[in-house]
Amino acid sequence: MSARVAATTPRGRPRDADRAGRRDALLETAMRQFLAHGYGGTTIEVVAAEARVAKRTVYTTVGDKADLFVAVVRRLGDRVVNAVAPDAGDPVSDLHAFGVRLVRLMLSDEAIGLHRLVTGEAAKFPDLAARHYANGPRRYIAVLAGLLAALPPERFAVRAGDHEALAEQLFTLLMGEPHRRRMFGIDPAPTEAAASAYVSAVLGLLLRPGRE
Known about the structure:
Residues 1-21 are annotated as: Disordered. It comes from Jiangella ureilytica. This is TetR/AcrR family transcriptional regulator. InterPro entries: Homeodomain-like_sf, HTH-type_TetR-like_transc_reg, HTH_TetR, Tet_transcr_reg_TetR-rel_C_sf, TetR_C_Proteobacteria. The chain starts with a helix and ends in a 6-residue tail after the last helix. It is elongated and about 55 Å long. The chain is mainly α. The chain has ten helices and no strands. It is 74% helix and 0% strand.
């Protein structure tokens, strides 16, 4: 009996990985469709056909079109949120590292395209806009609040009693004019070095220099 268990147990793991891989591929396909055709011009039927899955699979795996769009937004954000971990054992370094990942994500072609899309559709689909905000900006602000809370009080150059409020202000600063210029198609997506320098400048407005 133990031999049977040993023989069958490993088989479940690849299936789980396969399901995750198929879902990821589906969301990648959906993102391309949304960016190319907008929210109104994208259909579950076309996404399913492009992903080479049954229409029912889209509904059972993700949900309806609004669920699909929100899942695309959340998947994009996972690149930075799931990477949050002590990078150098120093709270300031951790905040800086997350800021760089966040700026590069929010100013990427994909994120800018989705932002333009949801901005144009917000009046017609207010619930979609609210869900986009909850799974995008609000999610990142919550991470920033946690990283700010980990800093010793003496590192702040501004009053920092409410980390949530400060995180909102920091998020606004991190986006700022670079995000506006990207929305207007004026600037290209920033390089790692450019994003790092920009984040350092922004944090310099909020934090005192350390002893390191």
